[in-house]
Design goal:
Rossmann fold, about 20% strand, alpha/beta, about 30% helix
Length: about 210
């Protein structure tokens, strides 16, 4: 079992917002992460944290964890959270699939945000896509009852594949999520909107525990 951390170590970089768990091989304790028992929302592949910090600012009664593999982006989240004094934000530097499968406790996550994951457009690369049957099972296991997964992509074919995967898995109720406020747009979405590209959105609510 591997954590899939990227090559730059965190040992010389310390911050209360850039969280390092006591073990990379055991589920997190949310109270230890945030010092409270508020509902947890997770932004998988949070990039520079534009969406994460905007939403955390809007909902101070909820906790927000950004998962990001690249150290440079994780540090941007850290700096933004520090600058805004957001006590309800943490960043975790690790691969999203590993975190969902091994680090998030069962029945503990209120909402997953998955915005503009790599579509891996070539057919031979589809197996690398984040949204796969096993991953959906892990999402369902870690969500609270009626917990949600909210997704967005600019890639029409990947969007169709996402809907097909959730539909085939079962136990999910599809809904139309509310578009983000302008300040909650990710850096990718701002770029796509500026280019006039369509953005496809869909949400799923857990109706049967995985």
């Amino acid at each position: 079992m591997q954590c899939y951390l990227s090559h730059s170590p965190l040992k010389n970089y310390r911050s209360e917002f850039l969280y390092t768990p006591p073990s990379w091989f055991a589920p997190l304790n949310w109270f230890e992460v945030f010092d409270n028992a508020n509902p947890v929302e997770i932004d998988l592949g949070c990039g520079d944290g534009s969406f994460l910090v905007a939403r955390a600012s809007r909902y101070p009664e909820r906790n927000f964890l950004g998962v990001e593999r690249l150290l440079g982006r994780a540090r941007k989240v850290d700096r933004k959270a520090q600058r805004l004094g957001l006590r309800n934000v943490r960043a975790l530097r690790i691969e999203s699939s590993y975190a969902v499968n091994y680090l998030f406790p069962s029945g503990s996550v209120a909402v997953y945000h998955i915005y503009f994951p790599d579509p891996w457009p070539k057919k031979r690369h589809h197996k690398r896509r984040l949204i796969q049957n096993e991953f959906l099972a892990a999402l369902g296991r870690s969500l609270v009852p009626r917990g949600e997964v909210r997704l967005a992509t600019d890639h029409a074919q990947y969007f169709a594949a996402i809907r097909e995967a959730f539909g085939a898995t079962g136990g999910w109720e599809e809904f139309a999520p509310t578009p983000p406020e302008p300040e909650e747009m990710t850096d990718f979405e701002r770029e796509f909107v500026a280019q006039g590209k369509p953005v496809f959105r869909v949400g799923y609510r857990l109706v049967a525990q995985a």
